[in-house]
Design brief:
Blueprint (H helix, E strand, L loop, with lengths): L1 H11 L34 H30 L8 H20 L9 H9 L5 H25 L1 H6 L13 H22 L2 H7 L12 H4 L3 H9 L1 H19 L5 H11 L2 H5 L3 H21 L9
Helix pairs in contact: 2-3, 2-5, 2-12, 3-11, 4-5, 4-7, 4-14, 5-12, 7-11, 7-14, 8-10
Length: 307
């Protein structure tokens, strides 16, 4: 009987336990990068630093070019039913962000938005040196993109308002500020979760044979890094789409101060500048709240004991 009891006990452990739920499920290894230094002047001597800034410039240029042309096409159509409509504008913003993030994430991180850069800086994901450089390049790219759109049809550009962000009739500046805060929070919140190293390590399911079809850098990457490169642009682009769908009637949707700045500088209207502070203050507050929420509440980084 003793042998039989022992055999029963062994068979009881024959099958592995079910995957635990919650924080106990986070059993896979992952690489948590150390906090970026506030100042990192040695970056200025690296070509990768300047290449990343150029990538941000080109990406933001293309972002303004595609989105403003879409907005202009919608505004110039007499019969709105014959145009792309609000849904089409939202898809244009979300789709181009999806494509550009996918293309640039391996070069610069695919920020394409000073607000995103600001939120990641607060989370110590990049240095102040790099953050300021990115913001300058993003704003310059946005201004150049808007200027090219105006060059195509200068008269119509001025007549139709250039796609510059303003608080629409029926809403107050407080309404616009609140919409921008919540919209930017959703965007930056999504970015933190889509690129979180711990979550990617836990949930990664990229097939191993996929690595054989990519370049050397991808082939030697860890599963969580492969997943981030492939999947992160999708929720980010979809978040941009949803925010635009909800807030276009209120402010035209900024959540990206480079987009608002580029259109306002080239349009240069008093009406646009009167509301412009909304599209700086709101996104910055939203990005800061998302960074604090992710780092303090979700990741509990300040409360973790230091080794």
């Amino acid at each position: 009987m003793e042998g039989k009891d022992e055999n029963v006990r062994l068979r009881a452990n024959k099958f592995t336990e079910r995957q635990p739920i919650g924080t106990s499920a986070q059993t896979k290894d992952y690489n948590e990068p150390p906090p970026a230094p506030i100042f990192e002047p040695q970056e200025l001597h690296l070509w990768s630093f300047w290449r990343a800034g150029i990538a941000e410039f080109i990406a933001t240029f293309l972002f303004l070019y595609i989105t403003l042309l879409t907005v202009m096409g919608f505004a110039r159509t007499p019969k709105k039913c014959a145009s792309v409509g609000v849904q089409g504008i939202a898809w244009a913003f979300g789709g181009i962000i999806f494509a550009l993030v996918y293309c640039t994430t391996g070069i610069s991180g695919g920020h394409i938005n000073p607000t995103v850069t600001f939120g990641l800086f607060l989370a110590r994901k990049l240095s102040l040196t790099r953050a300021l450089f990115y913001m300058v390049m993003q704003c310059l790219g946005a201004i150049c993109g808007a200027s090219v759109v105006k060059g195509f049809q200068p008269n119509l550009y001025e007549k139709l308002g250039s796609g510059a962000n303003v608080v629409n009739h029926g809403y107050t500046k407080g309404d616009g500020l609140g919409a921008e805060i919540v919209g930017t929070f959703l965007l930056v919140y999504t970015i933190f979760f889509a690129t979180d190293a711990k979550r990617n390590a836990r949930d990664s399911h990229v097939p191993e044979n996929m690595a054989r079809t990519k370049n050397d850098a991808y082939r030697h990457a860890k599963p969580e890094e492969q997943q981030e490169e492939i999947l992160a642009p999708l929720p980010i682009g979809f978040a941009v789409f949803l925010v635009h769908l909800a807030t276009i009637p209120i402010t035209g949707t900024c959540i990206n101060l480079a987009r608002s700045l580029g259109a306002a500088v080239i349009f240069n209207s008093d009406h646009a500048w009167d509301h412009h502070w909304v599209f700086w203050v709101g996104p910055f507050i939203g990005a800061a709240l998302a960074a604090l929420y992710h780092q303090i509440v979700i990741r509990a980084i300040p409360f973790k004991s230091r080794a």
